[in-house]
Design brief:
Blueprint lengths: L1 H33 L10 E2 L2 E5 L3 E4 L4 E11 L14 E9 L5 E6 L11 E4 L2 E9 L16 E8 H5 L5
């Protein structure tokens, strides 16, 4: 009898802790959207593009997924004011996790090049996630090291079925 009471009380404490975590996450997400003092919504959708600062995490309710912009693993884009033979590529590491799935890191590039394993979009949980923008662009003087931590990306999320069946009626 004593063991049942201990197990029951531990179960109740666990449930109370989960409920407390849910309550603290809600004000943080509301505070993040309210902190934009500009009239525009850069973190929300602009023409279907969702913007992330480096290290930023958002739960996208309409897609039932959590998206985190981890950082840029490669940035070989041609710097401003320099004539280059190849435009270069930036590869963003985006961690996605559905409501009922494990986290997965997608490496999204600014261009498709299968020979170098660069992909502009990837499918996850029935959606196609595409990298649309990477800012700021590199500067010739600094060598690109000054941009670490200052990157901002724009991704577009579309239904994977609609994208692949667009010619079928």
């Amino acid at each position: 009898m004593f063991h049942k009471a201990i197990i029951f009380s531990l179960g109740m404490l666990t449930l109370a802790g989960c409920n407390a975590q849910k309550k603290t996450k809600t004000p943080e997400s509301a505070a993040g959207t309210a902190s934009n003092s500009s009239g525009t919504k850069p973190e929300l959708q602009k023409e279907g593009i969702i913007y992330f600062n480096q290290g930023e995490n958002k739960f996208l309710k309409e897609y039932e997924m959590n998206v985190t912009f981890k950082g840029i693993s490669e940035d070989s884009r041609c710097p401003e004011g320099v004539a280059c033979i190849w435009a270069g590529v930036a590869v963003a590491q985006v961690e996605v996790m559905g409501t009922y799935t494990r986290p997965m890191v997608l490496n999204l590039a600014t261009m498709d090049n299968t020979g170098r394993d660069y992909h502009k979009s990837a499918e996850f949980n029935g959606y196609t996630i595409s990298l649309e923008e990477v800012t700021p662009s590199r500067k010739a003087e600094a060598g690109g090291k000054d941009l670490n931590g200052k990157y901002k990306i724009g991704i577009k999320i579309t239904n994977a079925d609609a994208a692949s069946n667009s010619t079928k009626k």
